[in-house]
Amino acid sequence: MDYSHVRDVDPAVADALSGEDERQRNTLAMIASENHVSRAVLEAQGSTLTNKYAEGYPGSRYYAGCEYADEVENLAIDRAKELWGAEYVNVQPHSGTQANMGVYLAMLEPGDKILSLELSHGGHLSHGHPANFTGQLYDVEQYKVDPETGYIDYESLEQKAEEFDPDIIVSGYSAYPRAVEWERIQDVADDADAYHLADIAHITGLVAAGVHPSPVGVADFVTGSTHKTIRAGRGGIIMSSEEHADALDKAVFPGGQGGPLMHNIAGKAVGFREALRPEFEEYAERTVANAKALAETFEAEGLEVVSGGTDNHLVLVDLRPSNPDTTGKDVESALEDAGIVLNANTVPGETRSAFNPSGIRAGTPALTTRGFDEEATREVGELIVRVIDNYDDDAVVSEVADRVQELCDDHPLYEE
Ligand SMILES: *Cc1c(COP(=O)(O)O)cnc(C)c1O
């Protein structure tokens, strides 16, 4: 990238930006929530729309001069409607958390009841964690995955819903490798007379491409992020039926946000346009095929894969059976030295702390963007296992790092 204007005024930031470009080029991004957007999306995000105030919605803004802001936001909305088949779309949330906030603000009063998956079982902070506004404003009860199978424990969800009588049930997760049975959760919500929010932050792109079942038209509300399995830049999105349009619009602005980030909304419009192309379906299919190849490699090498595999873009490994004395942070840190960037993660039945948990989470969206196929992904899986088994052996880590560098060079990023 050319940061010549930044360099003129601020060499320190220019150095950090160039450093980050190099870091992304020369490492493998396997944090399951990360991806690489196209240059087109980067350009849109770096546009002069960052200068524009556009409080309100297309056609009814609080400021003059919104002609092009309206055009861009309408394009983002129309394309999202086409991608996910939703009646109503709001593209203004600054992030996935802000999208969830929009739904809660629209539908709940402080003190109302949320039933959601526990964070250590794959849930998200914005689903009711005590450190998040959701845990502070609402009454929260949580369901779990079955510790034996790693699948959502739908029966205990049903039982909890009966006992707790929630106002809203939240589905959709951060570290769950299996397909979610939306209808089953919808039935529970119907029986409990509760709303159902399906937060598809991680799988937004997989759902758009039809490689994961869609909750749109099933759940009352669907929220997502626009930067994980879809490459539309950092941000959030809300989908629903027309019935809730007014309440949701008001909850996002002025309820929880001020002026929309119009440059990011331009990035969303461009990223959605890219996702409407037939190649995106191939991309999503390959992302899942690569994750399956990764899970198979881990299992073949003796690691415990939570739930025994994956239906989506991520693999969760419980290190305890194969490497009882090795923590997720040991592995995360040695892998970073080897040029493979993923994260330590809690696993169902966690016996360590959230900060130094017993598992790792690995995702394939970014590798797949770089053109990795199943064979190359299997090799990455083998390299990861070598580092897990030798995390404190500098010679092995350095050998793996050399091979990772070759793989990065073979799959260039932002070079065209
Ligand atoms: C990533 C994620 C979000 C959104 O997070 P932001 O960082 O706020 O964009 C929301 N819900 C789930 C389940 C997630 O995994």
Topology:
Elements: H1 4-9, H2 11-25, E1 28-29, H3 39-45, E2 56-57, E3 60-61, H4 67-84, E4 88-90, H5 96-107, E5 113-117, H6 133-137, E6 139-143, H7 154-164, E7 168-171, H8 182-191, E8 195-199, H9 204-208, E9 221-225, E10 236-240, H10 245-256, H11 262-275, H12 278-300, E11 304-305, E12 314-318, H13 328-337, E13 340-341, E14 343-345, E15 359-363, H14 365-369, H15 374-389, H16 394-410
Helix pairs in contact: 3-11, 4-11, 5-10, 7-8, 12-15, 15-16
Bound molecules: pyridoxal-5'-phosphate.
Pyridoxal-5'-phosphate binds at residues 33, 95-97, 124, 126, 172-174, 199, 201-202, 225, 236.
CATH-derived architecture of the largest domain: 3-Layer(aba) Sandwich
Task: State the CATH superfamily name of the largest domain.
Answer: Type I PLP-dependent aspartate aminotransferase-like (Major domain)
Number of domains: 2
Total count of helical runs of at least 4 residues:
16
**Euclidean distance between termini CA atoms:** 11 Å
CATH fold assignment of the largest domain: Aspartate Aminotransferase, domain 2
Strand order, main sheet: write it out.
4-10-9-8-7-5-6
- Unreliable stretches covering 5 or more consecutive residues: none
Strand portion: 5-15%
Average the pLDDT over all residues and give the rounded result: 97
Gyration radius over CA: 21 Å
Q: Helix- and strand-based class?
A: alpha/beta
Query: CATH first level of the largest domain: which class?
Result: Alpha Beta
* Helix coverage percent: 40-55%
Let me know the number of strands: 15
Which small compounds were modeled alongside the protein?
Answer: pyridoxal-5'-phosphate
